[in-house]
Amino acid sequence: MTALSARVALSRGFALDAEIRAEPGITVLFGPSGAGKTTFLHAILGATRPARGRVAVGERVVFDAEAAIDLPIHERRIGIVFQEGLLFPHLDARQNVMFGARDGDRARTADLWLERVGAAGLARRKPRDLSGGERQRVAFARALAAEPQALLLDEPFASLDHASRGALCGLLLDLRRDSPIPFVHVTHDPAEALRLGDAMVLLKDGRVSASGLPSALLAPGGEASAGGSTNWLRGTVVEDGPDGARVDLGGTVVAVPALGRAPGSPVVLSLPAEEPVLAMSEVRGTSARNVIPGTVVSIDGGDGAVDVVVATPVAIRVRITRGAARELALAVGSRVWLLVKASAFRRSG
């Protein structure tokens, strides 16, 4: 298995000075618009030449400013899938994938990859006759038919509807399982980062500000949470049925609406911080399906509201008024109970 390592710096138009190491699996490059995510990918790919730095795939160096190594894009064996797919409009799906195929029987390779991504029935159709999700399936097939040693994904699902995005995320997870190469996936969607990421790198203003597990960086108080008002929670389906489901969030099991997922399936849930109700003693006889005990680990006062992070053991952010915080006499270490309606949890991935 091969890792991708990249350390690049440039200052033309945008100041970028960042370094990552992506192991086989999916490394999410996360950050707000304008953080430099796409510029970083272009520097790794070879579409932009850094002023300083080094890019290597395994032991093979494809760029080294000091050693004057700068392999052209077609020699780097680093694939990329763009937001819009960028298929050749005059070629059908099969011909697009054949163009990307590396060696040997390109027609057979194209057919195998189209089948692998669930697009075998699209082989003779031109890009204009494909939906957004179908075009991205073909784009994945074209990129992987080239047998890349690393694959860059520049927000490939950003322009898709929710259903297509979910299906393509599932496809990407299947490809990751079967491909011993690093994937670097750019997104600013927390749910997508949680569902896909084996690791995450947070980019801000052209620099890496944090790295680690997506669940840790996106947890309340994590470097990537940015004090947001939504809890993003990755869990595993315990049971599911027409009347609702139960999800293990990593030590905290919650009741949620029916998910249509088999037990054992991974799922990403969102929970607005305004939804949970805080109580200082256990409450019984309530319509809330979830009464969750926990301990206050942080209290952050803002303009007109207070954010309270409760370890349950999974961390959940609760936003309450300043008046409520005073009346409850909350303090770090306080034992509390969260009352949360099942309907407050929404499936996000």
Percent of residues in helices: 10-25%
Lateral strand order in the biggest sheet: 7-8-9-3-10-11
Number of strand elements:
21
| Beginning-to-end CA distance, first to last residue | 28 Å
Tell me, briefly, the overall form. Answer: globular
List keywords for this structure.
single chain; about 350 residues; alpha+beta; six-stranded mixed sheet; five-stranded antiparallel sheet; globular
Provide a descriptive summary of the structure in words.
The chain is globular. Helix 3 packs across helix 4, helix 4 crosses helix 5 and helix 5 packs parallel to helix 6. It has a 6-stranded mixed beta sheet with strand order 7-8-9-3-10-11, sandwiched between helices. A 5-stranded antiparallel beta sheet has the order 2-1-4-5-6, with helices on one face. The relative contact order is 0.12. A hairpin with a 5-residue loop joins strand 1 and strand 2. The protein is built from 9 helices and 21 strands.
What topology emerges from the helices and strands here?
Elements: E1 4-10, E2 16-22, E3 25-30, H1 37-45, E4 52-57, E5 60-64, E6 69-70, H2 73-76, E7 78-81, H3 93-100, H4 106-116, H5 132-145, E8 150-154, H6 162-178, E9 182-187, H7 190-196, E10 199-204, E11 207-212, H8 214-217, E12 230-241, E13 244-248, E14 253-256, E15 266-272, E16 277-279, E17 290-301, E18 305-311, E19 315-321, H9 322-328, E20 335-340, E21 346-347
Parallel strand pairs: 3-9, 3-10, 7-8, 8-9
Antiparallel strand pairs: 1-2, 1-4, 4-5, 5-6, 10-11, 12-13, 12-15, 13-14, 15-21, 16-20, 17-18, 17-20, 18-19
In short:
The chain is α+β, with helices and mostly antiparallel strands and 349 residues long. It contains 9 helices and 21 strands.
